[in-house]
Amino acid sequence: MTITAIATAALMLAAAPEPAPRPAPAPAPAPTIPADQYGARTFDPETDQRRVCVIDTLSGPGIARRYCQTRATWVAQGTDPLARR
Fold first, then answer.
1. What is the spatial distance between Cα 62 and Cα 56, in angstroms, rounded to a whole number?
2. d(CA 60, CA 42)
3. Does this model's pTM top 0.90?
4. Nearest CA to 80 among 56, 49, 71?
5. Who has greater pLDDT, 69 or 84?
6. What pLDDT is recorded for position 34?
7. What does the alpha-carbon distance between residue 76 and residue 41 come to, in Å, rounded to a whole number?
8. What does the pLDDT look like over 22-65, one tens digit per residue?
9. 73 C-beta neighbours (distance < 10 Å), count
10. Could you tell me what percentage of the chain is helix, strand and coil, using 3-state DSSP and rounding each to the nearest 5?
């Protein structure tokens, strides 16, 4: 009797129609940011005090080492890691 009840319940669940999928919500419009607020700022490399880290992988053991200095220090040493190439 129990097996019949379980089999009947399983068949009823298998035969039940699937609910209709919900429509995807409309994507929110991308915010517009004026160019003077985002990306257009320029920093003088020789006075820039932001911290810049460079990851260097040594050949041989393959161990990565992270070097962090201000951008002004990097430029004073002859390297600008943020310069466009």
1. 10
2. 39
3. no
4. 71
5. 69
6. 60
7. 22
8. 888 888 877 665 655 555 567 788 888 889 999 888 777 778 88
9. 14
10. 25, 15, 60
